Every structure is written in structure tokens, then in C-alpha cells.
Amino acid sequence: MPNKLDQLKLMTDVVADTGDIAAMREYTPRDATTNPSLLLKAANLPQYAPLVEAAQQFAQSSSDPGPAACDRLAVLIGKEISQIVPGRVSTEVDARLSFNTQATVTRGQQIIDAYQELGVPRDRILIKIASTWEGIEAARQLECEGINCNLTLLFGFEQAVACAHAGVTLISPFVGRILDWHKARDPSADFSGANDPGVASVKRIYNFYKANGFDTIVMGASFRSAAQVCALSGCDRLTISPDLLAELAQDTGLLDQALTSNGATSNERTADLAEDEFRFALNDDAMSTEKLAEGIRTFAADQRTLEQQLLRS
After folding, report:
1. Closest by alpha carbon to 149, among 132, 135, 163, 168?
2. Are 74 and 118 in contact (CB under 8 A)?
3. How high is the pLDDT of residue 1?
4. Average pLDDT over every residue of 240-265
5. Which domains does the chain have, with CATH numbers?
6. Are 87 and 13 in contact (CB under 8 A)?
7. Which residues belong to the active site?
8. Whole-number Å distance between alpha carbons of 215 and 169
9. Per residue in 193-216, pLDDT tens?
10. Cα separation, 70 vs 88, whole angstroms
11. Strands, DSSP E only, in 3-98?
């Protein structure tokens, strides 16, 4: 019997949720995704010391060396990753730009240009942007330019609807963080199996997209357990941490396919959302509002820490 990771790869594109190249070589994912928190960890690994030094040198001539060094490090690590995975590498725009559409567009263009200068074509990269109204509008513009995007920090259904209508290439709904929010408010509740609200959220989005012919790829993210991963087997893509990849690789049990596009049904409203509708719906969903804000704060804090570390060295 093949292990569960190998079985999963037959029904879902597996993505490595890490900046650790050694883990990617071991588990051979299709794609890889990074964020400021993962880059902060990667920057402290000995094997990345030459890339850190190169990013620091690159930023010396910049008028804003902190962000320049971080973006350069992200691109240098992304280039290394692109030589290991056959598919896409997601590189995140500074979370502090999450409420500035034009600044996000400009930064996304700069990241793509930097990759292309290093010989990595744009079709190997996804620009990762927070799923705010401004972020989704920035993605709409970038997609029109042929720059594909990964909309992250996605917690609410309305965010997914807006992303689909914006023509976003891929979304990353955060399974584990949704569960975290519900467990913090009701610690005694049973959130196992079908009761897991993070798993249910991704299933709802997946069925909505497939039933209505939206091309946007659904990539479940932020998993807390292998059980959550298995509950979404068959999803377009799943981005999984090295620890959970290892657990799946060691499990030789049978993995049934949980999601399939054949016969997907949804009774949800399919129309696009106006800005006021989007903002009200997001505000009306306490979990999505709180987790989106928390995620932006966390990524922004890690970005600042990484900047300080790069500028001190």
C-alpha cells in the first residue's frame, strides 16, 4: 500500500508550505509557497547565508533598504526553490501594503521583474497578496497584465467570491486558523471530522467554484493536522508543512478522495460583490474580520523583524 502522501499526490497537487529547500527535495511537491514568517525562519538557516549576504548587498543602493533587502531575499530563495519544484513558487507582497491597491500592483510588478532578471519566467511565479478589497483589486490588475496571483489570508466565503470574479489564479483559504478561532471561543465543542469549520469552509468554496465554472484554483492552507489534510483530499491543491508531509509519508493507511469536481453543487449567489457589499459581509463575519486583521499584523511584524535582522547584519 502506498503511503498517504503518495496517494494524496494522485488526487491533489501537493505544495510545500516552507522555505526549507531540504524538505522540498525530500517530499518532491509540485509547488512551493513562502511568506514573511517562513522567510524569517529560512534566513536563519546556514545554507541561506550566501543569499542573505547577496540581499544585503543588493539593498545598499536602495533608498528604502529594508523592504528592498526582504524582497531580494524572497526572490533569491524563490529562484532556488524554482530549481527544485516543477511548478510555481508563491512570493508575498509586503503585508503593510494590504490596503493600498496601487502600491501592491507596483510591488508585484517589481517582484516579477526581479525574477525575470534572474532568469525565472513569470509563469513560474505567483504573487501572493492578502485578500482585502484592495488586494483583490490589485490582483485583478496584475492578472490582466499576465501576472498570476495567489490570494492569501482568505477566511470568508465573500472573499472567495470576489477573487473568482477578479480572475485570480489561485486562492489560499486558511483551514487551521479558522479552526483556531472557533476552538478559542468554544473549547469544549467537537470540531473533529465533518464538524471542522475550516474544512467545511474550503469544501463550500470548492463546490461553489466547480458548480459555477470558475477557473480559480482552490489551495487549502494552514493545516493543524494530517486529518484536516486528508479531509480535503481531491482539492485542487493543498499546501502542507514539512511536519505534516512527514506524517503523511509515514502513514500507509487507505486515503479516500473527499472532494471531486464531478457533480459539485452549490446554491450560493453567483453574482459579483460591489465594494460596499464585500466590506459589509466581511465586517459581519467576526471570524473572517479578526483572522484577516491578525494575519496581516503577524506578517507585517515578521516583515519588520526580517528587515531589522538584514539591516543589522
Report:
1. 168
2. no
3. 78
4. 95
5. 4-312 (3.20.20.70)
6. yes
7. 128
8. 7
9. 889 999 999 999 999 999 999 999
10. 20
11. 13-17, 31-33, 89-92
